[in-house]
Amino acid sequence: MSYENIISNYSNGITTITINRPNKLNALNKDTIQELHDAFDEANKDSETKVIIITGSGEKAFVAGADISEFADFGVNEGGKLAAQGQALLFDFVENLGTPVIAAVNGFALGGGLELAMSCHFRIASANAKMGLPETSLGVIPGYGGTQRLPQLVGKGKAMEMVMTAGMIDADTAKAYGLVNHVVEQEELMPLCEKIASKIMRNSSVAIGKAIKAINANYKDGKDGYKVEIKQFGKCFGTEDFVEGTTAFLEKRKAEFPGR
User: Fold this and answer.
1) Of 70, 115, 185, 251, which residue is the catalytic one?
2) Residue 115 known to be catalytic
3) How many whole angstroms separate alpha carbon 161 and alpha carbon 151?
4) pLDDT per residue over 113-154, tens digit each?
5) What pLDDT is recorded for position 1?
6) Using 50, 70 and 90 to split pLDDT, how confident is the model at 165?
7) pLDDT tens, 199-255?
């Protein structure tokens, strides 16, 4: 599939999706959100793809926010629809993918950019990265899940401060807050993401998908995460990966998971 605003490349079990709007600091517009949905959907359905990495083009920005020009004249109903459609199409969609998604935050991750990074399963940042939710400085609030995911990751107090001040934090602060897992120099960012991806790929992709469902359930209203874990744990016993994993362990050899 060809795209105008993103680049999607597959290599050795990893699909890397790059937001490619450098003249706009990779800002998210309607078309880019749709293309990202399509690229994530395509990679998730590809049995050869075991891990997805999302990053931005260039060395300045992961995603420097949403394209404000697209919604500056919206009214109440249009604004609510914008948030609902965006969450369903991309941000919730990414969070609930069965394929692990790593955000390689290579610069500014602001507004919708930070919300996209937070919807990924975990984040790795370059040392020059800056993160924040500046929406209140524009008279609006984060609308792509930021008010929900940020407190889950950094705690209520820090999230309140970040949203109310509309300020940015640097990569080291983001790591101290638990917003990112690792901070490395720019040239080390993709190699580290790929190294971690290679470790993930040694394990059962089926089991990882079920683990994502169980972990996410803890953050869903009306969901009992323990019950979801029990259900997903039980389902593992009906997979070929379980048979291969336990057999390999007992035979003292490396497992070759079929992904089924």
Assistant:
1) 115
2) yes
3) 10
4) 999 999 999 999 999 999 999 999 999 999 999 999 999 999
5) 77
6) very high
7) 999 999 999 999 999 999 999 888 899 999 999 999 999 999 999 999 999 999 999
Domain termination residue (choose one: 179, 201, 223): 201
Q: Are 124 and 220 contained in the same domain?
A: no
Rounded (5°) CA angle 192-194-196: 70
- For the chain, the average pLDDT equals 96
Cα–Cα distance list, 246 to 122, 146, 205 (Å) = 28, 40, 15
CA distance 192 to 200: 12
Instruction: Tell whether 260 is covered by a domain.
Output: no
What predicted TM-score, i.e. pTM, was given to this entire model? 0.95
110 and 44, same domain (yes or no):
yes
> Residue 132's domain spans which residues?
6-201
Q: Of the residues 42, 135, 188, 194, which is catalytic?
A: 135
Is position 136 within any domain? yes
Q: Do 134 and 16 lie in a common domain?
A: yes
Buried b (16+ CB within 10 A) or exposed e, 50-69: bbbbbbbbbeebbbbbbbee
